[in-house]
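User: structure tokens for this one?
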Amino acid sequence: MNPFLQEVAEDLMARFGSDLQNCAIIFNNKRPSAYLQKHLADIIQKPFFSPSFFTIQEFFAAATNYKIADFYMQFFTLHQIYNQLLVEEKLETISSHKFFPLAKIILSDFNQIDSDLVDAEKLYRDLEDISIINKDFDYLSPEQYEFLAQFWTSYSEGKHKKQQELFIKMWRRMPKLYHKLHETLKAQDYITNGYAYRLLAKEDINQQEFLKGFEKGKIVFVGFNALSNAEAKIFTQLQQAEKALFYFDVDEYYLNDPLQEAGLFLRKNINQLGLKNIFENQPSLIKTENHSVNVFKVQGQSAQAKILNTILADDYENSAEIGSTVVVLADESLLIPTLQTIPTTNNGHNIDLNVTMGFALATSSIFGLADLWLTSQLEILQSSRVSYKNVEAFITHPLSGLSQRMRDKIQTALLNENVVEIDHQRLLRQSGLFEVFYKKIERPENVVPFLIGVLDYVLTRLSNAKTLKKIDAELFVKSIQELNRLHDTFGKHIDNEEIPFIIYLVQKSLQAIAVPLAGDPLSGIQVMGLLETRNLNFDKVIILGFNEGIIPKSSIGNSFIPDSIRRVYGLPVLENLDAISSYMVYRLLQRSNNINFVYNSLTDESTSGEASRILKQLEFESGFDFKYHELNLNIQTEPFKEVKIEKTGNKFIQETLQKYLNKTKILSPSAITQYISNPIDFFFNYISGIKEPKEVSAVVEANEIGSILHKVMEYFYQDLKNGEITAERINERKKLIPGLIQKAFNAVMFNHPDKVIEYKGMQKVILAIVDAYVTIILDQDTKQTPFNIVSLEQKVEAEITFPLNGQEASVKIFGYIDRVDVKDGITKIIDYKTGSDKLTFKDIPELFNSDGKNINKALIQTLLYTYAYEQFSGKTCVEPNLYIVKTMSQDGIWFKTGRQNLSGDFLEEIKPEFLAELRKKLTELFEAPYFTASAIPDNYKYSIYKTLFGK
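Assistant:
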């Protein structure tokens, strides 16, 4: 089957020959021009003067005497006029930021009104009248109300009258806004795109000076379908003057059947408007040609792209020619999965691939850098500081150009300081890109030039280093071009705007940029969106994302003009989208023999899981040969495999364990309790040395609250420990607590006890929590007075012997005891806890059972401190006390089994048993053949290594 554009080229050559250069050829989009030129070249076989090619928008813009105002010029002009109208009504003006989403809808409505030649004043007056009826006639029956105001269902109740009144006022000012917008733009020699349509339709287009350049030829319109009222009027005028030719790509299958929505607009163009189709008597390709259709049902959005390699297998082997194969992305979010799926080579030869949709700047590292700059500038404007996460993102960004050594140096310094926000001036002092990147925006007109400066700096450095990739170079150039255009457009409009709003506009503008990827539009596999396929034909068609809600779309877009009014005035409604989508699919299929539909069968927030209704319709009535395939991605789960780390024969493990036996490494109580709770955790932490990366965070972790509390208590008792502690001395010193808490907070969080900062948000909450904890501890201490403090945060060391391979071995343990008191001749170990530790225990053997549920880490650690202190000091009968701040006011401070407290004679009985079980566990640590995981998941519930071994 010959492509449609080839038939157009043949007919044009037959009609005009060498005079074709005098013709203007108009398409809906740019893509078909290259194809038609190729077909013309194939026919003529020698150099020739080309006809002029235009898109419809370019053609109409060239035919007027005005320039087309871009969106931002229209927005700023509209905002100025809107506020003027509000002032005239003695109402409060609206800010640019609040008006922006409103303006987008208003401008879209105005454009639609103009292109469809609707009387704006009459339309908005009707809207006002109907809304007044809805507001004032609440007594009507539901049936009457529905007939009068279908569009006002969401504001029908009395409580919504305030919003109704606001809308009435807005619609009342709309005609003025509409006329003043066009008057203001025209005074500057600018008009909107829709108004260009209205102007040309209102006048006799045949008298336009621009068209006189084509008097020796014709204006050729190729492949049009849905026409606005302005286009319809202009096309009719040109045909009546015998200046236009129309080539409609149509099949009688859907043209002559009034029930076929695909032919809705073509029937209107040909039968109602009387536009003459040059190809009017062609046979139906849908009915006469063979069409093989494969339907692929897959599970998952990205999975649709994964089936491409199966469908395109033959294309990889053969050199594709013009009109051969196209991959149509009905859902354009499938571009990246598609590019990741189609290989670049096959069996040693390159695969030709052309992507016409373009690569979005928003998915590139360049946009990431620009967006980071815009975000950082907002922070600098607000507080003259930049958050650590944004500074870290900048120094680790691939385009920052910092060496790994410099990145590590900066990150280490910031991590050590635990600075959540970095002072702006400190960043500026780093010079180089830092100085360019963090230069503060002082005025709104600085936003675009400063961003251009950042991108230009990075682009120059990459070019000089010869590390600039081709796609990045194109994205840089496109970004700088767009920013320069914005700078010209913003001009005098932004002098009084807020900088954050200008930043918002720049972000939105950059997000819309896309750069076409390299490729030949005339050969190889073509990847494009559905709209880009207009006028083009391919033997093999693959459509991805062929889901209901995507083809056709389920929404017409935002508008202040309700559906009922749109129908009255002939503006586009949802059914128009159905007809347009159906036509694009049918037109694409009518000249194809190998058709492949792929759709996602899973239901999620973006798709219904249903194939498009167009597919169902084709299946029911077309007579095509349908074959169905289902791609099931089998999910296989592997049975849990116990992870065991073998010690024997592993030189590294044996050498590390030997360091503990040689006393070159010392065991802490935390290390011992970690081994008891989950032996494999001990391996990852103390043998392999795998640590959790340190992060800067404004959130204070639970363990840091404990550290702050420990510091406060150390500071509190530092000056009291030299004498007897009494209730009076404690109460007298309480007034210093707020300052001590701040000092402790700064010491733990910033390694700087005397740092002066302004506490805010969660920091104030943490200070209050610690204050409450300190009060609880001091209340307990007051009850215990009088007593004496022997030491604070004292480091103690001791050796523990244990049997190993038939001989005696020993390890050294060490720890820091929070506090050692003496009361009534009894020495007490005081340990503060802010977590959910418990004072109860079952028995001593259960404390050391790694596969049991009764491990009490706090008791093990406190008894270890007790043993170490007795060895260190030579004292006996030392008693462990645990201050669990959350529960000690109810549960006390003594460990207990059943009702018996761990003190006095009972404690002395327990100590030898504890030491015996500890020795057994140490023997296991050094003698057992494996490090294994505990059989009780709760024992490693919060382990950071769980992904390495967890069940």
